[in-house]
Amino acid sequence: QVVLVSGHLDSWDVGQGAMDDGGGAFISWEALSLIKDLGLRPKRTLRLVLWTGEEQGGVGAKQYYQLHKENISNFDIVMESDEGTFKPSGLGFSGSAEARGIVKELMTLLQPINVTEVYDNADGTDIAYWMRDGVPGASLHNDINKYFWFHHSQGDTMTVQDPNQMNLCAAVWTVVSYVIADMEEMLPR
Q: What range(s) does the Peptidase M28 domain occupy (predicted)?
């Protein structure tokens, strides 16, 4: 059984792709790194996917889906961060009402950093195939007021990233992925 965390690797000839979507890739990597460093061993596999070809029609995600769809019943949740790593506010979630209730309860663990909201619908080109077929999905919600200042521009460099805000995003990704991976049962479909 798998909990999938992800971001995609974009590179544009006018920018570095640090925010879109280096930040999402980084917090996904950091979540697994933190869990390992803490010596935690969840009941399910945590899998990091760094998607490719998202801007070219999601070809990387489509290929991954084709290779793994026969095991779709073993995918507990698919998570994608693709709107920068600014100050987080919660998760977009797609799934059953019962699963949404579990995720809302889980998000109360993040009250100390004030990131507790569960929004309707997860977004993500790279996880869309899975969600279409009933796998619960989550996407990071954060303050995107400045997102399009940098999106696909020369300004999309590492200087855009605020380490404190990225740490908060990584904390959200870590807590959500670990708790879901360590629950007794998979999220209900």
A: 1-173
Instruction: Provide the edge-to-edge strand list for the sheet that holds 137-142.
Output: 45-51, 2-8, 75-80, 137-142, 88-94, 117-120
Q: Catalytic pick from 30, 54, 80, 83?
A: 54
| Per-residue pLDDT, 124 | 93
For residue range 141-159, list pLDDT tens digits in order.
999 888 888 888 888 888 8
Beta strands in 81-152 (DSSP E): 88-94, 117-120, 137-142
Q: pTM here?
A: 0.95
**Tens-digit pLDDT profile for residues 117-130:** 999 999 999 999 99
Is residue 79 included in any domain, yes or no?
A: yes
Query: What's the structural domain count of the chain?
Result: 1
- Domain that residue 49 falls in: 2-182
